[in-house]
Amino acid sequence: MTRTDLRVVAALGARSVKQTFRRPQLLAPIVVFPSILLAIQTAGAGQAVNLPEFPPVNSFLDFMLAGAMIQATLLAGNSGGIALAVDIEMGFTDRLLAAPISRFGMVLGRLAGTGVLSLLAGIWFIVVGLIFGAQINDGVPGVIVMLLLVTLSGLAFGGIGAAVALRTGRASVVQGLFPLVFVILFLSSAFFPQDLLTGPAATIAQYNPLSFIVEGIRDPVISSLTWEVFGKAIASLALVGAIGIGLSALALRRRLRAGG
Amino acid sequence: MPAIEANGLERTFEGGIHAVAGVDLDVAEKEIYAFLGPNGAGKTTTVRMLTTLLQPTGGSARVAGFDVVAEAANVRRSIGVALQEAALDPLMTGRELIRLQATLHGLSRQAGREKADSLLERVDLVDAADRQVGTYSGGMRRRLDLASALVHEPKVLFLDEPTTGLDPVSRRTIWEEVEQLNREGTTVFLTTQYLEEADQLADRVGIIDFGRIVAEDTPGRLKAGIGHPHLEIRLVEDVAERAREVVAGFGKPRPSKDGAVLVELEGGAGGVAPVVRALDDAGLAVESLDLVEPTLDDVFLEKTGHHLEPEEPEAGESE
């Protein structure tokens, strides 16, 4: 990738971030919905920490922070996909495709924006958590690891959103993934300790890459992050990212062949 | 070296639809070439192939000396493109859009800033530069789109229906800008469904219908090739059928247009009086008569058998 390509990716990423802040319907899923869900769950289900086999935590908020963050990154990926599909629908991508830039730079720019938005969402939830009494066991290094994993999650999930956008070219289809995000979340350890899940949900959660990513974000808060948990989180992100970016590349190639 | 050259350019879409069925082009440097045709004629598909947005399924084309398939990146460096419907992000400001376009074309941050300032001034958008594009009128959007296509001073400028949907005043502003660009040495390839636009702006016009060029020449020569003016007769009552029978003996009848009866007059103005007398003798009351010199629409009719009738915008629709 040339220096110009990197400047283009940065410029498109900046556009993506500004676009999200200027369009409330793109920002709401990333910050507002997860914040509301976090407030409802911590206020209404705080006694869950007393359940047998619930991991030792200072508060239910400590446990839930990682779930809220991962929900925000999943929805950031979905919102990024919607925004890309809107670009395709209104012909804005033609402007990019007619320019002398790497054509995949268009996708990377969008992903860069999603990564930055995920980082901002991560910072938001850490600040909110600290204000309401959360304690991050691993301190500043733990915060840095959490923000790293949250940012990478945005990039990885953004790849899936981008792939659907490029394949279909329709914002309504990408928007249709919204409920699926919650199914994937609830079939992971995002909102419940894995040991408390039963039946098929427990089995799916055990292999759901999201569970490994959530544990990587959660462990610095409630206990102490080990290299094993961190490694599994990074490997899961690499898997999701490779699938997302691979599918995006295929969808872009197909779209270019068909004529944008 | 021609600025644009195409040989047997074709594009067939899924389902066997031949959107472009063998187009040959030879556009000289510093020429304004207009592609005139109705919706669905193949204008936009041709432009998309020439601007590397769509791969041809047959034939070949070169723009600014580069093959549109094998040397697509070089083509993209040499061209400016303003596509139909001004594909602008309504959430960006005009200034942001031009700066982004400058980055896409490899200009430095400083050069992009300076370019944005000068282009916004050029298209008279300085006051609106920091407003979101969503608040712009249609004419302002087109001017911004045109400005954004100029950031890298392209050799060849493609304008796909640059004035469709604009009111006459906005349309004329765009024409003046295109003419100025051409005087500065830019080759302009524009598509249009407006006869007047092709007539006024273009050095040469290619008339396209059903994916094929059916005529190509300067507007003057195309019209001269048609020869005779025609008489456009509007009647007080709905008696067009009888009127057609009456005037048939005075010249070649033409298909009706907006309810008017049309007949070619070889003798020009000298042939009007006998037609009026014949209509009067037949008891047909005439509301209006117009002797119309050949237009590009006549050329279109002659070559395709039907009129070119674009939808005109309401006055004041855009600005």
Structural notes for this entry:
The complex is a heterodimer of chains A (260) and B (319). Chain A is mostly helical. In chain A, 78% of the residues lie in helices and 0% in strands. Chain A has one domain (3-258). Chain A contains eleven helices and no strands. Chain B is an alpha/beta fold and 319 residues long. Chain B contains eleven helices and 14 strands. Chain B has helices spanning 43-50, 72-78, 94-104, 109-122, 138-148, 168-183, 195-201, 219-226, 240-247, 272-281, 296-304; strands at residues 4-13, 17-27, 32-36, 58-63, 66-67, 79-82, 156-160, 187-192, 204-209, 212-217, 230-235, 253-257, 260-264, 286-292. In chain B, the strands form three sheets. Chain B has a six-stranded mixed β-sheet, with helices on both faces. The chains are: A mainly alpha (260), B alpha/beta (319). At the A-B interface, helix 1 and helix 4 of A face helix 2 and helix 3 of B.
Largest sheet of chain B: 6 strands, mixed
CATH superfamily of the largest domain in chain B: P-loop containing nucleotide triphosphate hydrolases
Class by alpha and beta content of chain A? mainly alpha
How many whole angstroms does the radius of gyration of chain A measure?
18 Å
- Name the helicity range of chain A: over 70%
The percent range for helix content of chain B is: 25-40%
- Summed up, the helix count of chain A is 11
As for the number of domains of chain A, it is 1
Strand portion of chain A: under 5%
How does the overall form of chain A come out from the CA principal axes? elongated
Number of strands of chain A: 0
Helix/strand order of chain A:
HHHHHHHHHHH
Task: Note the overall shape of chain B.
Answer: elongated
Low-confidence stretches of chain A: none
Mean pLDDT of chain B: 88
Order of strands across the main sheet of chain B? 6-7-8-3-9-10
